[in-house]
Amino acid sequence: MAKTIVLQIKEGKAKRPESKNKRVPAPEKRTADGMGKEVKTQKKTEKLQFIKTGIEGLDALFEKGIPKNSSVLIAGGAGSGKTLLCLQLLINAAKEGNKCLYLSFEESPERLKGHIERFGWGLGKNEKNLVISKLSLFDIGRSIDALLAKQSGDLLIDISPVILPENFKPDILVLDSLTAISSAFRGNEGTYRVYIEQLFRYFEKLGINTFLISETEQEPKVYSPTGVEEFLSDGVIVLYNMRKGNVRENGLEVLKMRGMKHTKKIVAMQILDKKGIEVYPEQEVFSV
Ligand SMILES: Nc1ncnc2c1ncn2[C@@H]1O[C@H](COP(=O)(O)OP(=O)(O)OP(=O)(O)O)[C@@H](O)[C@H]1O
Ligand SMILES: [Mg+2]
């Protein structure tokens, strides 16, 4: 590993958790501002917890934040900012002491690290809190085989639907992308649906926050590879790269967030050099 490498990078060396019982423990409660902030509801006995993305303007779209241990779909067209948004919120979470994992089927860890450097998001002493793993479709092949075996009547061995790195239990996980995974099931949509249900259940069981990237049309009507994923997710955030005459403008919309009041309009967003994503909650954008 070169001296200048900022992040822990694990490429293709990830291993499945040894057993179902070795679950990631629920992250401990944090009371400081930011990720994991504890919020007391009116009922004295009930405590709901929320996380903040730390992205300027984005957190203001939610009444309190993104519910802890929820799964959120980040949907959008090519170049709409899905990767950068997820990377930026992981960096912010890592700075707050959360363990963050970026699982990429798309870009290499070196490229993602390049984005982090270019935007000036260095983690300093918190670099150990972010792990970027490159996965190949081969890595989920065993799970696919097991599902196919089950469909053909063979015994289903207990198997996790996605490979997590050894010795790193994340509080927050980004999966880039569901679209890449779905391509491994081409021609076998039924099996993909079984897989995806298993994946959501697995994340729920782990008790972590997940952000699942989904590639869509620039102005989508369906937000995921099969359209089922947006119902399985607790939340959906849509990124737009909308055409207005001969220019394109970035927009962001919180389409749904279970159990949470949120802004219901497409608001302006920008990707700023050396800074990253900013969201403008008061500035609406419309496509022409
Ligand atoms: N330094 C920069 N300054 C301003 N904008 C930038 C900068 N770097 C990248 N961008 C913008 O960000 C876009 C890429 O963002 P990102 O990689 O997050 O998109 P994506 O939705 O993940 O794309 P894909 O679907 O290809 O994976 C570029 O198309 C460009 O418009
Ligand atoms: Mg991307």
Kindly describe this structure.
By secondary structure, the protein is α/β, with parallel strands linked by helices. The chain has one domain (52-284): Rossmann fold (3-Layer(aba) Sandwich). It contains 6 helices and 13 strands. It has helices at residues 82-95, 109-118, 141-151, 178-183, 189-206, 229-232; strands at residues 8-11, 38-40, 47-51, 66-67, 71-76, 100-104, 130-134, 172-176, 209-215, 235-244, 247-257, 267-272, 276-284. The protein has a 10-stranded mixed β-sheet with strand order 1-7-6-8-9-5-10-11-12-13. Helix 3 (141-151) packs across helix 5. The N and C termini lie far apart (49 Å). The model is unreliable at 1-34 and 36-45 (pLDDT under 50). The structure holds adenosine-5'-triphosphate (ATP) and magnesium ion. Magnesium ion binds at residues 82-83, 106, 176. Residues 76, 78-84, 106, 118, 215, 271, 273 line the site of adenosine-5'-triphosphate.
How would you describe this structure in keywords?
single chain, 288 residues, 3-stranded antiparallel sheet, Rossmann fold, 13 strands, 6 helices, disordered N terminus, binds magnesium ion, alpha/beta
What's the helical proportion of residues? Answer: 10-25%
Instruction: Quickly give the CATH architecture.
Output: 3-Layer(aba) Sandwich
- CATH topology assignment: Rossmann fold
Intertermini distance: 49 Å
Low-confidence stretches: 1-34, 36-45
N-to-C series of helices and strands: EEEEEHEHEHEHHEHEEEE
Ligands bound here?
Answer: adenosine-5'-triphosphate, magnesium ion
Percent of sequence in beta strands: 25-35%
> How many strands in all?
13
Shape: globular
Largest sheet: 10 strands, mixed
The average pLDDT score comes to: 84
Largest sheet, order of strands side by side? 1-7-6-8-9-5-10-11-12-13
- Return the structural class: alpha/beta
Q: Can you tell me the number of structural domains? A: 1
Total number of helical segments? 6
- Highest CATH level, the class: Alpha Beta
Radius of gyration: 19 Å
Can you say what the CATH homologous superfamily is? Answer: P-loop containing nucleotide triphosphate hydrolases
